[in-house]
């Protein structure tokens, strides 16, 4: 059997045998990225709704900025968070560099603009449709934003998943601020990078397969829920 | 809050005048129909009255309103916008915004859904209802808070004759409870059935105003006469 075939075989054995090391890494990845998505949702969704409904000076500039920030390179975010959290940095006293907390901070910074910018678009489209009706019913802009957040909930779910996909798949930021410490801050992507460079292809491949399957399954589940919900609610 | 008075109201957008120096007064009582061909500015005029648009010139005043927009008015749009929640939830939403308590909103909402014949659909998602049902639901939502004035913008334009009859009879019931009906239509038959007081609009101007009976029998202006002649089956 060639190297690739061997690597695949070993990878499947690791997954099938529920290798404890693999589980540990997958679990940490999920914990970090899901927490980052939750934090980004708490900031990004209200921000998106506000930008969709409110009219103020500098709104357009803010939207352009957010859209640009969607493309932030993860390594640059990693570097900035590293500088902030390093011992000599302004937030060094927190002592969270090279911990999962630092990784959560970095991923949150990375995906908050994505969630805010995409939800702004979604909610603004809905606002164009609903504006007259909501104003006629007497809804102020704050109330209207809350109503729109709830009424676009199925689209917003897809946006949160896009954020999760981006967080779970990035390497640069978590590598820099987490340090890829075995058993502490090693997640799927950093482990894949490390094992590949060490030549331990089966573990790298096994993790790679888990990562891809996870993202595909999540998206499939989301689109099923979305379709069912749209059939149910119209 | 009535009468509603418009004084020399104009509305222009992008250099195009849509409403041109319109003045009238609408008092409580008879059903007022704003009639006119497509593009006459009926919908815009209604949005100005309801406060969704601001006039470019002129003045819109409610009695005792001090220039403010009184709350006890509702509007039903040509295409109803339903929220992604149940039929009941949509009516409750409007009632909560009008300041009713959660308990009272639910009771009132159930009553009004029954009045428009949607009690069996009250738990159905509003967006899955048929076009006619959605428009009845829109009427229920607008009516539930007990408005003093109800604006209706071509409420039956997209509906079949059966649904149109349902809507017209609900409008009659709402009128009977003392709510002032102000409605636009380009449908002459509907205007005849519902028009106690007719305002005829053409190219953004108020061309003629008369009691329904007089207007249809003996229009005073050539524009109105031509409209009635052309629209006759």
Q: Ends of chain A: how far apart?
A: 53 Å
Overall form of chain B: globular
Q: Over all CA atoms, what is the radius of gyration of chain A?
A: 21 Å
**Structural class of the helix and strand makeup of chain A?**
mainly alpha
Biggest sheet statistics of chain A: none
> Helicity level of chain B, as a percent range?
25-40%
Architecture blueprint of SSEs:
The complex is a heterodimer of chains A (234) and B (233).
Chain A: H1 3-16, H2 20-53, H3 59-69, H4 74-85, H5 100-137, H6 141-151, H7 153-169, H8 172-178, H9 188-198, H10 201-233
Helix pairs in contact in A: 1-10, 2-5, 2-6, 2-7, 3-5, 4-5, 4-8, 5-6, 5-7, 5-8, 7-10, 9-10
Chain B: E1 4-13, E2 16-26, E3 32-35, H1 42-50, E4 57-62, E5 73-76, H2 87-97, H3 102-115, H4 131-143, E6 149-153, H5 161-176, E7 180-185, H6 188-194, E8 197-202, E9 205-211, H7 212-217, H8 222-231
Parallel strand pairs in B: 3-7, 3-8, 5-6, 6-7
Antiparallel strand pairs in B: 1-2, 1-4, 8-9
Helix pairs in contact in B: 2-3, 2-4, 3-4, 4-5
Notes on the structure:
The complex is a heterodimer of chains A (234) and B (233). Chain A is built from ten helices and no strands. Chain A is mainly alpha-helical. In chain A, helix 2 (20-53) crosses helix 7, helix 4 runs parallel beside helix 8 (172-178) and helix 5 crosses helix 8. Chain B has helices at 42-50, 87-97, 102-115, 131-143, 161-176, 188-194, 212-217, 222-231, and strands at 4-13, 16-26, 32-35, 57-62, 73-76, 149-153, 180-185, 197-202, 205-211. Chain B is globular, with a radius of gyration of 18 Å. The chains are: A mainly alpha (234), B alpha/beta (233). The A-B interface holds A 129-130, 132-133, 135-139, 143, 147, 150-151, 153, 232-234 and B 47, 50, 52, 71, 74-75, 77, 80-85, 93-94, 97-98, 125-128, 141.
What is shown here, in short?
Chain A is built from 10 helices and no strands.
List keywords for this structure.
heterodimer; A: 234 residues; mainly alpha; 10 helices; globular; B: 233 residues; alpha/beta; six-stranded mixed β-sheet; three-stranded antiparallel β-sheet; 8 helices; 9 strands; 37% helix; 25% strand
């Amino acid at each position: 059997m060639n190297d690739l075939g061997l690597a695949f075989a070993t990878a499947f054995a690791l997954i099938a045998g529920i290798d404890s090391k693999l589980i540990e890494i997958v679990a940490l990845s999920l914990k970090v990225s899901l927490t980052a998505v939750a934090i980004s949702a708490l900031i990004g969704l209200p921000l998106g709704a506000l930008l969709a409904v409110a009219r103020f000076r500098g709104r357009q500039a803010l939207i352009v900025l957010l859209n640009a920030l969607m493309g932030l390179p993860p390594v640059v975010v990693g570097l900035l968070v590293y500088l902030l959290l390093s011992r000599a940095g302004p937030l060094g006293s927190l002592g969270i560099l090279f911990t999962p907390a630092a990784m959560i901070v970095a991923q949150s910074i990375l995906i908050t603009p994505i969630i805010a910018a995409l939800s702004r678009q979604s909610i603004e489209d809905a606002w164009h449709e609903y504006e007259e009706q909501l104003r006629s019913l007497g809804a102020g802009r704050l109330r209207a934003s809350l109503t729109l957040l709830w009424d676009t909930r199925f689209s917003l779910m897809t946006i949160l998943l896009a954020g999760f996909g981006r967080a779970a798949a990035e390497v640069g930021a978590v590598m820099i601020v987490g340090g890829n410490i075995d058993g502490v801050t090693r997640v799927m992507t950093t482990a894949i990078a490390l094992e590949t460079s060490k030549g331990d292809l089966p573990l790298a491949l096994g993790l790679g397969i888990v990562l891809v399957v996870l993202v595909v399954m999540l998206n499939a589940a989301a689109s099923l829920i979305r379709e069912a919900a749209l059939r149910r609610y119209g | 809050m009535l009468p509603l008075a418009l004084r020399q109201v104009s509305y222009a957008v992008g250099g195009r005048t849509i409403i041109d120096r319109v003045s009238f007064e609408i008092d409580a009582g008879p059903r007022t129909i704003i009639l006119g061909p497509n593009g006459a500015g009926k919908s815009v005029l209604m949005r100005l009255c309801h406060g969704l648009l601001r006039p470019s010139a002129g003045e819109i005043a409610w009695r005792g309103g001090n220039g403010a927009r009184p709350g006890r008015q509702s509007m039903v749009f040509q295409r109803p916008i339903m929220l992604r929640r149940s039929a009941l939830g949509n009516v409750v939403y409007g009632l909560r915004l009008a300041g009713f308590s959660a308990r009272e909103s639910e009771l009132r909402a159930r009553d009004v859904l029954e009045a428009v014949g949607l009690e069996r659909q009250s738990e159905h998602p509003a967006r899955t209802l048929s076009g006619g049902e959605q428009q009845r639901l829109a009427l229920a939502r607008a009516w539930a808070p007990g408005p003093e004035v109800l604006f209706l913008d071509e409420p039956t334009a997209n509906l079949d004759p059966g649904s149109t009859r349902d809507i017209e009879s609900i409008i009659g019931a709402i009128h009977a409870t003392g709510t002032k009906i102000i409605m636009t239509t380009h449908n002459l038959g509907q205007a005849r059935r519902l028009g106690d007081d007719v305002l005829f609009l053409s190219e953004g101007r108020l061309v003629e105003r008369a009691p329904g009976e007089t207007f249809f029998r003996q229009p005073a202006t050539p524009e109105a006469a031509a409209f009635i002649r052309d629209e006759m089956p």
